[in-house]
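User: Okay, second chain of the day. Same drill as before: sequence in, structure tokens out.
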Amino acid sequence: MSEYGAVPVGFTGEQNPSANTSIWTVPPDATSSSDRNFLMPNNDKGVPNDNAYPPPSAPDLGDLPPNYYDISIVPNNVVLHYNEVTPYTQPSSAQVERKSEGVVSFDPLVDKNPDQLWLYFMTYLNEKPSLTVNIHGYHVEHYTTYERRQAADGSYHTHAVHHTRNVTDFNINVDLAPYVTQQWWRVAVIPSKKAVAAGEVVLFRDALEQYTRSDKSIKEITCQKQVVGWNFQELQDKIKALIYSTGYRNHITITFPMGNHRISARSPSTLSRFSNSTLVRVLCVVSCLCIIFGPIYLCLRAAGSTRDQIVADYAMAAPIDTFLHFNAGVIANAAISRSQHSHIAYIG
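Assistant: Same drill. Structure tokens below.
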């Protein structure tokens, strides 16, 4: 199995115990006022690391999760690296809505102007995704309840009903923010099957211009952030082995929840805002109207979305063994003490 890995959003794993790129620069007038960080120059196309260690090898396709994207399959001349982007003087002034999964903008500023849309993405790519490892230890409890039922002859009988439930022993969250590099490494457009079949090469700018040329009332363009450099299945296995070494013998589930992993722009039309409002979604579910309007909305949104997936890679700043070296004690002690607390990962 390759040492290179990408963690998907909501990556989970459970095991029961048994033993020459076109450069697009932002025009001088595409400025705004903000106190956000500016993009700083970087002269290295390699994996950005705060601690030097050998770069990961190319991943085996079988090692990558189904909902993640391998940028190494994209021709290198269409991959945009961090050091290839001319630093901007002011970040985007587009209004955004923040959610746990990232930012979304309905601002007309980015709807028809590809330069402003570029600036919008560059600004929020400067915010790295959050990554946590959640370690949940639990045992299965069996219990019985009794129900009184009436028979056909009118008499009542008591029946035993057997149930199982998971009971938490410990639940640990370790914030991996110190291990995710602050700067993004590379951005690429993963071509759709249609584009691949046609032999098309899609640049980041191509995708942005496709979006801004569209006059559809409902449309969306999204950049998905992902972290690369760790084999997360290997990390799962090592954490489980560590906890079992303390004498714990029950079930362990390890997940890697992510946040701030999406940058989206959507049409500023009234229909787009209305269909994306939380209130409308709740009312549709409560009134069951989603059965009628849900498929219609999804078809419109799919038709208005860019046909290719934009992906941004952020590298891990140190290898798995470094993380375990500095954090094994915290994890083991938390399991032993049956902790349900959160911790920030230590890094040397």
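DSSP finds eight helices and 14 strands in the chain.

User: Thanks, on to the next one.
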